[in-house]
Amino acid sequence: MNLALRHWKEAATVILAARTRLKTATDCLKSRENPSPPDFTKSDLSPKPVFDYDVLLLKRSVKSGFMPNAYVFPGGLVDPSDFSNDWLETFKSFRHWPNFGLGFVKQAPETRPPIFATDRQKLGSLIPSAVALRICAVRETFEESGILLVVPKKEENNIAHCLNHPGDNNVATSPTRLNELLDERELARWRSLVNENPFNFIRMCGELDCMPNIWAMHEWGNWLTPRGLETSRRYDTAFFICCLEDIPRTIQDEKEIVHFKWSTPSEVMQSFQARQLFLALPQIYELGRMSRFPQLQDLHSFARMRAQEGCERFLAVRLDSSDSRVFLLPGDELYPENADFSGEKGVILRTEKGFEQLQQESSALHRLVFFDLYTVTVQVSITPKYKHLSPIGGLSQPSSSRHKSQL
């Protein structure tokens, strides 16, 4: 862990997408010939989405100290156990590989988000950030949902073959198949032990002769909690994405998580617009990105190849206008040059201008505009960095009835 952090707590999350049905070749061709993903800023979303996968969202408890009642991707705080050198024994077959077989990204070191770039050896850990953050996401996913993203040690040779011959094995180019290592009773026992003490996750992997499947998780993004939310807690969160061939057995923990939901990205946003569930800013943005891929295989292929490029650190800066609340992201024309990435101050900007005037006066747009907690438009006119994609739904004008802010 990075104990030098004063204003941020490090965390990791994973976006889980799982296939729901296998389409025929004709169905796939039709969807490719007529790619019309939903526009999340419009009210007439298609009632019959073309997605062949669902994404997992977990509802946080009303008693949660961070984002109560919000639906979020599985994940949580980094624990010292995630950086424990005891993992060296678990991954001993991959210690000679860069980042234990994850390889290096092309992004220049000086532009890498600190959560990935921090030299952990100086902090006493031989586990690289890229590995430990994935371990954290796997552990937290197990604690919160009962989904165990591990791979048996006996598959080490297959993994090594994929690393040596990346284009020579369907395993690497297809979504991941999970292994059922435990029956429900043993799964519940280990889950309870890991919840009591995260170091038990290392012990569990040793006794079950398995490894956290870090290779199935692809770097997707990095979000920092902005100022101006109804919370004093702030997190520096690494986002990963993992595509699965089937929806796994899922059980909420009844503590922090009170409900889970497997739904297509468009169904989630329809429910959000209908005020049936609440989403935080990163979930709105990332679901919009995913919606460019109705087919799971396309999402998996894109995520796998794009991860080699690295990612941009997103710290939203709040701007209160006369009729809306705007969250500016890097690259937006109004994004402050001196944005506080230290987490020490984090000012809130204000203007007497309204939504339409702000939009007309800005040529470079990268922002989310909220008219109330459930009415949001995503505006992106810039080219995303590191070969990423912008979310669907940019530049749509909300109706005049929405101009009156209810925030």
TrEMBL record:
<keyword id="KW-0378">Hydrolase</keyword>
<dbReference type="InterPro" id="IPR000086">
    <property type="entry name" value="NUDIX_hydrolase_dom"/>
</dbReference>
<keyword id="KW-0479">Metal-binding</keyword>
<keyword id="KW-0460">Magnesium</keyword>
<dbReference type="GO" id="GO:0046872">
    <property type="term" value="F:metal ion binding"/>
</dbReference>
<dbReference type="GO" id="GO:0005739">
    <property type="term" value="C:mitochondrion"/>
</dbReference>
<keyword id="KW-0464">Manganese</keyword>
<comment type="function">
    <text>Fatty acyl-coenzyme A (CoA) diphosphatase that hydrolyzes fatty acyl-CoA to yield acyl-4'-phosphopantetheine and adenosine 3',5'-bisphosphate. Mediates the hydrolysis of a wide range of CoA esters, including choloyl-CoA and branched-chain fatty-acyl-CoA esters and at low substrate concentrations medium and long-chain fatty-acyl-CoA esters are the primary substrates. Highest activity seen with medium-chain acyl-CoA esters and higher rates of activity seen with the unsaturated acyl-CoA esters compared with the saturated esters. Exhibits decapping activity towards dpCoA-capped RNAs in vitro.</text>
</comment>
<protein>
    <recommendedName>
        <fullName>Acyl-coenzyme A diphosphatase NUDT19</fullName>
        <ecNumber>3.6.1.77</ecNumber>
    </recommendedName>
</protein>
<feature type="domain" description="Nudix hydrolase">
    <location>
        <begin position="7"/>
        <end position="285"/>
    </location>
</feature>
<dbReference type="InterPro" id="IPR015797">
    <property type="entry name" value="NUDIX_hydrolase-like_dom_sf"/>
</dbReference>
<comment type="similarity">
    <text>Belongs to the Nudix hydrolase family.</text>
</comment>
<dbReference type="GO" id="GO:0010945">
    <property type="term" value="F:coenzyme A diphosphatase activity"/>
</dbReference>
<dbReference type="InterPro" id="IPR039121">
    <property type="entry name" value="NUDT19"/>
</dbReference>
